[in-house]
């Protein structure tokens, strides 16, 4: 039996897997068929799904799994280890393990200054409520894991309220605040948020508080999340906020494509972020960069900056592959995205903002995108109709400038671009080069542009007049050549050895 961490908000015994299995089969066959049709132009969408490996001595049901030792890669190795089974955990899919998780983390926290601690979750189905991590700590999932109980916590100060409604929000499944050196990894272990209940409550307007996320780390430094599968989050999947020096690598995120707000990875008021080799099927943006909402984000004043996104594969029929905003009131700058593949998604890159947001989105560089079946390749809007309340400042006008797109190939597209700035503050410094868009149907105006300024070259069909054509011989749009802050990050080869630290 695989280990499985699962969130069950109401009923411990209900699996709710049939609809998800059906969805995954449909998704697989869709991706396979589409990939065969466009194989010459696409990187395979399963490029970053890791093959599961059986750990030595893998067992079942939370008996410790028989695992005595194995090797793994992580940002840091730990001197002290323990198994969840050592703290009374039972991975039978029915026994609550919240107390076991919390006791294990509390116990291992004593080793933060003595080489750190690692909690191993062996094979089994682990039912648990939310729990917080500690510093100098690794959570390692053998294969999978499970949840109940969602306590109420305060809204984020840069948002002023919950996103689903005024007031507080439910705690995230795996959380932590003011931490340093935190690793969440595994052998492609699964964390299942059992989101169907939450989506139903959201659609029925029955929620009193904002839904929790699967992973949320706040005010933290040195975060490494890798080699996991995240399923059916109630809302966002991975949400680092007010944090820095973050790597998210080798993550698979799966949710029904019409599930509400199941964003994949959302760095929020974060600096020095590296997202790479991830595969996301989502009901919302695959990656969304944020930094606070209207007057609350302006007051908090913490930007998202120095962010790298590489080798991302995305399926999101109702949202963007990469979104910037709409909550961007602390500012967003220096974002670099490259080698992006998307299938059946609403837009390739979307910038969302509005009067009242203030701040800026600037110095955004995107290159080498391969897209198939899109509504828009590029989408910008300065009139996003969403505010936390009516107290926003109508004079807080955002600045959008220095946006570069190059080396983009897109097939079966409804419209090449919809670029709508703000009349009093046009979006400027837009550069589009070496872009080929194959429209699903011929249309007279494949580009729509209003209140934007910039240049283009080597674009088919030709861009709008406000992106002045510089000719095919013009230099391509810029992409930074200097190293990003997280480029020097390297993994260590570690060994887990079952110890008596518990």
TrEMBL record:
Q: By its UniProt entry, which InterPro entries does this protein fall under?
A: GH28_Enzymes (IPR051801), Glyco_hydro_28 (IPR000743), PbH1 (IPR006626), Pectin_lyas_fold (IPR012334), Pectin_lyase_fold/virulence (IPR011050)
Molecular function terms from GO: polygalacturonase activity
Q: Does the keyword Ubl conjugation apply?
A: no
Sorted keywords for this record are: Glycosidase, Hydrolase, Membrane, Transmembrane, Transmembrane helix
The record lists the membrane-crossing segments as: 23-44
Keyword hit for Cell membrane:
no
Q: Which PANTHER family match?
A: OS06G0106800 PROTEIN, PECTIN LYASE-RELATED
Q: Which named protein is this?
A: Glycosyl hydrolases family 28
- What organism is the protein native to? Musa troglodytarum (fe'i banana)
């Amino acid at each position: 039996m695989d280990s499985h961490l699962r969130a069950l908000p109401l009923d411990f015994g209900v699996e709710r897997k049939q609809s998800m299995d059906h969805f995954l089969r449909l998704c697989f066959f869709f991706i396979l068929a589409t990939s065969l049709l466009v194989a010459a132009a696409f990187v395979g969408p399963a490029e970053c799904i890791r093959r599961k490996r059986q750990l030595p001595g893998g067992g079942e049901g939370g008996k410790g799994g028989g695992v005595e030792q194995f090797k793994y890669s992580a940002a840091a190795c730990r001197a002290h280890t323990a198994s969840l089974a050592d703290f009374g955990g039972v991975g039978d899919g029915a026994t609550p393990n919240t107390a076991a998780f919390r006791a294990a983390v509390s116990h291992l926290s004593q080793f933060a200054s003595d080489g750190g601690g690692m909690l191993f979750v062996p094979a089994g189905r682990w039912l648990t409520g939310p729990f917080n991590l500690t510093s100098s700590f690794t959570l390692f999932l053998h294969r999978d894991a499970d949840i109940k109980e969602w306590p109420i916590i305060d809204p984020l100060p840069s948002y002023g309220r919950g996103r689903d409604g005024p007031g507080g929000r439910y705690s995230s499944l795996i959380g932590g605040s003011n931490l340093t050196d935190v690793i969440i990894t595994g052998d492609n272990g699964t964390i299942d948020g059992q989101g169907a209940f939450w989506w139903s409550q959201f659609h029925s307007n029955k929620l009193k508080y904002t839904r929790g996320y699967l992973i949320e780390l706040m005010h933290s430094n040195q975060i490494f999340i890798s080699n996991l599968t995240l399923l059916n989050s109630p809302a966002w999947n991975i949400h680092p906020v007010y944090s820095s020096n973050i790597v998210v690598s080798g993550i698979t995120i799966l949710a029904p494509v019409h599930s509400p707000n199941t964003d994949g990875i959302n760095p929020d008021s974060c600096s020095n972020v590296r997202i790479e080799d991830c595969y996301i099927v989502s009901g919302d943006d695959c990656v969304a960069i944020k930094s606070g909402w209207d007057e609350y984000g302006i007051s908090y004043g913490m930007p998202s900056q120095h962010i790298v996104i590489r080798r991302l594969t995305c399926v999101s029929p109702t949202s963007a592959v990469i979104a910037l905003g709409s909550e961007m009131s602390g500012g967003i700058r220096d974002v670099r995205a490259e080698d992006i593949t998307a299938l059946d998604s609403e837009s390739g890159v979307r910038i969302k903002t509005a009067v009242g947001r203030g701040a800026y989105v600037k110095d955004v560089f995107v290159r080498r995108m391969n897209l198939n079946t899109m509504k828009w390749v590029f989408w910008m809007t300065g009139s996003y109709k969403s505010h936390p309340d009516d107290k926003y400042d109508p004079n807080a006008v955002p600045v959008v400038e220095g946006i570069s797109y190059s080396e983009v190939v897109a097939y079966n597209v409804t419209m090449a671009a919809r670029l709508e700035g703000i009349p009093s503050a046009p979006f400027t410094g837009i550069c589009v080069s070496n872009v080929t868009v194959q429209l699903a149907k011929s249309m007279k105006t494949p580009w729509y542009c209003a209140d934007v300024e910039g240049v283009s070259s080597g674009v088919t069909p030709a861009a709008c007049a406000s992106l002045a054509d510089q000719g095919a011989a013009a230099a391509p749009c810029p992409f930074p050549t200097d190293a990003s802050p997280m480029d020097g990050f390297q993994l260590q080869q570690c060994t887990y050895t079952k110890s008596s630290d518990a």
